[in-house]
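Per reviewer request, we include the raw input and output of the structure prediction for the construct analysed in the revised manuscript.
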Amino acid sequence: MIRVILTDIEGTTSSISFVHEVLFPYAAEHMADFVRTEASNPKVSEQLAMVADQSGVAADDFDGLIDVLQAWIREDRKATPLKALQGMLWEQGYQQGAFRGHVYPDAADALRHWHDRGLRLYVYSSGSVKAQKLIFGFSDCGDLTPYFSGYFDTRMGPKKESVSYCNILNELGVEPSTVLFLSDVEAELDAAEAAGMQTAWLVRNAAPTGSKRPVMRNFQDVDALLKQR
């Protein structure tokens, strides 16, 4: 029996276009000023030190660090310090009303329903935990954070490697077969299955080819799957 649902965000609960057309451009536009004005903030300086370590740029070379961060944004690099800094920037944007987090209405309805049924809900995304809480806390479907029991990001490991899901299972303290992982990326599902989790492939628009894996089109389909298990 499924007792825990672990969900991806981008392409699963939320539109890919929101991330790439709203959040990423906002971070790119404001990153330079943020680094220069907030560099003395311990939380920011900690992440900049990690950028310096990973890039080889001197920690006091703010222009160089900004160039690295902008390049990582363009590459959609899954770098933990970049995701942390983006999360800080997005927090400002949400609080100032520059945008609201996009969540599909069917996802919001299902999350409420599953929570009320006693299922434990968690997020696993390449975005930082802060960014995850923001998209659900300031969503266009209201504050959804009360429905979640916890959040996981790249500190658990890369999303396409099974060890990451083993790390999550260790944190959850449950049998792998009681966890259902939702994602739009088949390689992530493969990694979760290798760790013993059950999975659901949620593909909202494109018609996948070359795979025998069942396709869920929305969260109603996932809910129907849950009732079969």
